[in-house]
Amino acid sequence: MTSTASDPDCLFCRIVAGTVPADVVHESATTVAFRDISPGAPTHVLLVPRDHHADAASLAAAEPARVAELVAAAGEVARQEGLERGYRLVWNTGPDAGQTVHHVHLHLLGGRGLGWPPG
Q1: Half-sphere exposure of 110 toward its Cβ, with a 13 Å CA cutoff?
Q2: CATH of the domain at 16
Q3: Is residue 26 annotated as part of the catalytic site, yes or no?
Protein backbone atom coordinates (compact mmCIF):
# COMPACT_ATOMS: atom_id res chain seq x y z
CA MET A 1 0.00 0.00 0.00
CA THR A 2 1.28 3.46 -0.79
CA SER A 3 1.24 6.38 1.59
CA THR A 4 -1.81 8.53 2.09
CA ALA A 5 -1.96 11.49 4.38
CA SER A 6 -4.55 9.61 6.42
CA ASP A 7 -7.15 6.89 6.18
CA PRO A 8 -10.46 7.75 7.86
CA ASP A 9 -11.05 4.05 8.62
CA CYS A 10 -7.65 3.64 10.35
CA LEU A 11 -7.59 3.66 14.15
CA PHE A 12 -4.04 5.04 14.30
CA CYS A 13 -4.84 7.82 11.80
CA ARG A 14 -7.72 8.83 14.07
CA ILE A 15 -5.39 8.81 17.10
CA VAL A 16 -2.90 10.99 15.19
CA ALA A 17 -5.76 13.35 14.26
CA GLY A 18 -6.89 13.52 17.89
CA THR A 19 -10.37 12.15 17.23
CA VAL A 20 -9.68 8.97 19.25
CA PRO A 21 -8.13 9.46 22.69
CA ALA A 22 -4.76 7.96 23.52
CA ASP A 23 -2.12 8.37 26.22
CA VAL A 24 0.37 10.28 24.04
CA VAL A 25 3.91 10.32 25.45
CA HIS A 26 5.79 11.96 22.57
CA GLU A 27 4.99 13.99 19.47
CA SER A 28 7.01 15.53 16.68
CA ALA A 29 6.16 16.99 13.30
CA THR A 30 6.29 13.50 11.77
CA THR A 31 5.67 10.99 14.58
CA VAL A 32 3.32 10.26 17.47
CA ALA A 33 4.00 7.86 20.35
CA PHE A 34 1.31 6.54 22.67
CA ARG A 35 0.89 3.78 25.23
CA ASP A 36 -0.45 0.43 24.00
CA ILE A 37 -3.89 -0.33 25.48
CA SER A 38 -2.93 -4.01 25.84
CA PRO A 39 0.69 -3.84 27.03
CA GLY A 40 3.05 -6.76 26.61
CA ALA A 41 5.57 -5.28 29.07
CA PRO A 42 5.50 -2.69 31.88
CA THR A 43 6.46 -0.08 29.27
CA HIS A 44 4.77 -0.63 25.90
CA VAL A 45 4.62 2.37 23.60
CA LEU A 46 3.60 2.43 19.94
CA LEU A 47 5.36 4.88 17.63
CA VAL A 48 3.62 5.77 14.37
CA PRO A 49 4.29 8.14 11.49
CA ARG A 50 1.65 10.82 11.07
CA ASP A 51 1.13 9.73 7.44
CA HIS A 52 -0.59 6.43 6.76
CA HIS A 53 1.57 3.52 5.55
CA ALA A 54 0.40 -0.07 5.83
CA ASP A 55 3.59 -1.61 7.23
CA ALA A 56 7.32 -1.13 7.82
CA ALA A 57 8.32 -2.25 4.32
CA SER A 58 5.87 0.19 2.71
CA LEU A 59 7.19 3.01 4.88
CA ALA A 60 10.82 2.15 4.10
CA ALA A 61 10.10 2.09 0.36
CA ALA A 62 8.17 5.37 0.36
CA GLU A 63 9.95 7.39 3.05
CA PRO A 64 13.15 5.73 4.30
CA ALA A 65 14.09 8.72 6.46
CA ARG A 66 10.84 8.26 8.39
CA VAL A 67 12.03 4.83 9.57
CA ALA A 68 15.09 6.49 11.13
CA GLU A 69 12.87 9.16 12.70
CA LEU A 70 10.69 6.51 14.34
CA VAL A 71 13.74 4.70 15.74
CA ALA A 72 15.21 7.98 17.02
CA ALA A 73 11.88 8.88 18.63
CA ALA A 74 11.84 5.43 20.27
CA GLY A 75 15.24 6.21 21.78
CA GLU A 76 13.91 9.50 23.16
CA VAL A 77 10.87 7.79 24.65
CA ALA A 78 13.06 5.03 26.14
CA ARG A 79 15.21 7.67 27.88
CA GLN A 80 12.08 9.51 29.04
CA GLU A 81 10.65 6.23 30.42
CA GLY A 82 13.87 5.35 32.29
CA LEU A 83 14.74 2.26 30.25
CA GLU A 84 18.49 2.54 30.85
CA ARG A 85 18.87 -1.24 31.26
CA GLY A 86 17.50 -1.87 27.78
CA TYR A 87 14.45 -2.11 25.61
CA ARG A 88 13.16 -3.96 22.56
CA LEU A 89 11.89 -2.49 19.28
CA VAL A 90 9.49 -4.64 17.25
CA TRP A 91 7.83 -4.18 13.85
CA ASN A 92 4.99 -6.60 13.08
CA THR A 93 4.22 -6.89 9.37
CA GLY A 94 1.09 -8.70 8.27
CA PRO A 95 -1.46 -10.85 10.07
CA ASP A 96 0.87 -13.85 10.52
CA ALA A 97 3.19 -11.58 12.51
CA GLY A 98 0.35 -10.26 14.66
CA GLN A 99 -0.22 -6.91 12.94
CA THR A 100 -3.84 -6.03 13.70
CA VAL A 101 -3.82 -2.33 12.76
CA HIS A 102 -2.50 -1.81 9.25
CA HIS A 103 -0.82 1.53 9.92
CA VAL A 104 2.89 0.94 10.45
CA HIS A 105 3.81 1.06 14.12
CA LEU A 106 6.97 0.39 16.05
CA HIS A 107 6.55 -1.28 19.45
CA LEU A 108 8.86 -0.07 22.23
CA LEU A 109 8.92 -2.65 25.04
CA GLY A 110 10.80 -2.45 28.32
CA GLY A 111 10.65 -2.26 32.07
CA ARG A 112 11.49 -5.93 32.69
CA GLY A 113 13.90 -8.54 31.40
CA LEU A 114 13.18 -9.33 27.75
CA GLY A 115 15.75 -12.05 27.16
CA TRP A 116 15.69 -14.30 24.13
CA PRO A 117 13.95 -16.60 23.61
CA PRO A 118 10.88 -14.99 25.21
CA GLY A 119 9.12 -16.75 28.01
Answers
A1: 18
A2: 3.30.428.10
A3: no
